[in-house]
Amino acid sequence: MTRDRGTREHHGGGLRGAIAAEWTKLWTVRTTYVCVIAAFAFMAVFTFYYGSIARINDHPLQPVGNAPVAALVLVQYPLAVLAMTSVTSEYTTGSARTTLQWVPLRHRAHLAKAVVAAVVALVLGFALGVVGMAVAWVVFDGHATFAVAEAVYQVLAMGAYLALVSVIAIGVSFALRAAAGVLAVLFFSLTASPIMLVGLGGEVLSRINEFLPQTAGSGFMLGDAEPHPPLVAFLIVVAWAGITHFAGLAVLRERDA
Amino acid sequence: MITLRGLTKRYGDTTAVDGLTLDVESGRVTGFLGPNGAGKSTTMRMILGLDHPSAGTAHIDGKPYASLRHPVREVGALLDAKALHPARTARNHLLAMARSNGVPTRRVDEVLAAVGLASVARKRAGGFSLGMFQRLGIAGALLGDPRVLIFDEPINGLDLDGVRWVRGLVRSLAAEGRTVLLSSHLMSEMQLTADRLVVIGRGRLLADKPMADMLAESSRAAVRAHLPRPDDLRLLTDRLRARPGVEVAPAGDGAIHVRGATVAEVGDLAHELGVRLHGLHAAGASLEEAYLELTADSVEYGTKEVGA
């Protein structure tokens, strides 16, 4: 059963190997497919309602892509959960140790998970954007505009935003390890905080809200110039991804597996 | 070779592993023994870079585990056989492992066949029995064809057939020149499998010696002599008892049990006295007896005998 040592191939492994392993692990559990289906279902239902309401209430004309961008408030969660479970399920089952046996360098193991989750979310984000626009276009029934450059920008932006949310989810998951805590933190920082801050009102709280990932991300995806130019809004989300990534890495390095 | 130098792990005020220094050499099976809570698993996790030592080092062929380019090809380890995603199939679990370290995919099917799981390779691991988990864990350890193998309690949950298979496997891995570190609480099995023993208690090294020495040095090692004539039996018993440090106990049916003397000494004495012997042999201590003697003072979660 042993192979000849002389013929051992000495390639593979490293970051590429770590990414290949994470990719394999992702597509060999059912959770992944459930999350992807949920994301598309949420997108279809949300954009259907968004377009219908705009039509029924005779809203002013808006870019068709606004519907899927608004839908991401909800649609981001199945993808965040997808990223999260790639980490938290390993702590639940004890296989986090197995992963670190295969890839003992902490930063590499973490980066591989972040890269895989981000790439999957990026590509799914493109597809979700296209699907959302298609569904909305039908139900808007003339109450929306379509411009190729604008639509392409919004599709790309949705992919980028979801990729960054996935990186945030991975970082928070490595920092907290338990799914309940991770979901609470994600829900609080992505969804609850903007609602609270806007609800309470006032200049300071509104200003804080403008720097939260989802608020900045929405501005970026809508292509709004206010409160931040799109590039600045994008960089705010990148900064959140960076901060949570390194927070997660710090915990992963420090604590025993 | 696995090299530990002053390896220490503290959790707050508790010292789980206390300055372990030892070499686990290649070409033989090193048994790793100790009571529950002695620090065996913590030591193994530190060797694999999973837990950070508070002090000291653990090296594999001179390097820390984390610095190995292809760790799965260098060190195969079975720590917790159940530590895998229950929804993933056995084959996909090993496939991810193979891809992480650039191990050819065909090797996955080879090891699955080698551990006898080929027929359930595409079944979800969550439905496996403990014995099947152990086999899958062993398949993972063998996947990269590593020079160093670490098995933590590999025979838990295995049936007799499985136990005998692991024994043969472990012996053959060592015979191929690999380094094998094996922990188990089953002393009779360890006695059949290990060449050398490392015993720890409360995180400290209690013994690091060949199996033969461990058994021979036990105070439970004895010589059994059988003499057909009662007079001879009495004479030999009296003369042996006259020697310092020798204990003699009747063992029934014309036999005696001698502690503190070698077979040669008892044989020579019988010859000198001219008594007739029908049997003389070493009744070596079992590993269980030798182990209990060694660890008597370092049992972490012991039970006291309740007086009647």
Please tell me about this protein's structure.
With about 260 residues, chain A is an all-alpha fold. Helices cover about 80% and strands about 0% of the residues of chain A. Chain A has 10 helices and 2 strands, in the order ααβαααβααααα. In chain A, strands 1-2 form a two-stranded parallel ribbon. In chain A, helix 3 runs antiparallel to helix 7 (about 180-200), helix 3 (about 65-95) packs antiparallel against helix 9 and helix 5 (about 105-140) runs antiparallel to helix 10 (about 230-255). By secondary structure, chain B is an alpha/beta fold. Chain B has 2 domains: about 1-210, 3-Layer(aba) Sandwich (Rossmann fold), CATH 3.40.50; about 220-285, Alpha-Beta Plaits, CATH 3.30.70. Chain B is about 35% helix and about 25% strand. A 6-stranded mixed beta sheet of chain B has the order 5-6-7-3-8-9, with helices on both faces. A 4-stranded antiparallel beta sheet of chain B has the order 11-12-10-13, covered by helices on one side. In chain B, helix 6 (about 160-175) links the parallel strand 6 (about 150) and strand 7. Chains A and B meet through helix 1, helix 3 and helix 4 of A and helix 2, helix 3 and helix 4 of B.
Q: Record the strand order, biggest sheet of chain A.
A: 1-2
Query: Roughly how much helix do the residues of chain B carry, as a percent range?
Result: 25-40%
The third-level CATH topology of the largest domain in chain B is Rossmann fold
Largest sheet of chain A: 2 strands, parallel
Q: Total number of β-strand segments of chain B?
A: 13
Number of domains of chain A: 1
Number-wise, the strands of chain A total: 2
If classified by CATH, what would the architecture of the largest domain in chain B be? Answer: 3-Layer(aba) Sandwich
The CATH fourth-level homologous superfamily of the largest domain in chain B? P-loop containing nucleotide triphosphate hydrolases
Rg value of chain A:
20 Å
Uncertain runs of chain B with pLDDT below 50, 5 residues or more?
none
Measured between the Cα atoms of the first and last residue of chain B, the distance is 51 Å
Structural class assignment of chain B: alpha/beta
Chain-averaged pLDDT of chain A: 94
Oligomer: heterodimer
Number of domains of chain B: 2
Q: What's the alpha carbon Rg of chain B, rounded to whole Å?
A: 24 Å
Query: Low-confidence stretches of chain A at least 5 residues in length (pLDDT < 50)?
Result: 1-9
- CATH domain class name of the largest domain in chain B: Alpha Beta
**Helix content range of chain A:** over 70%
Give, in order, the helices and strands of chain B. EEEHEHEHHHEHEHEEHEHEEHEH
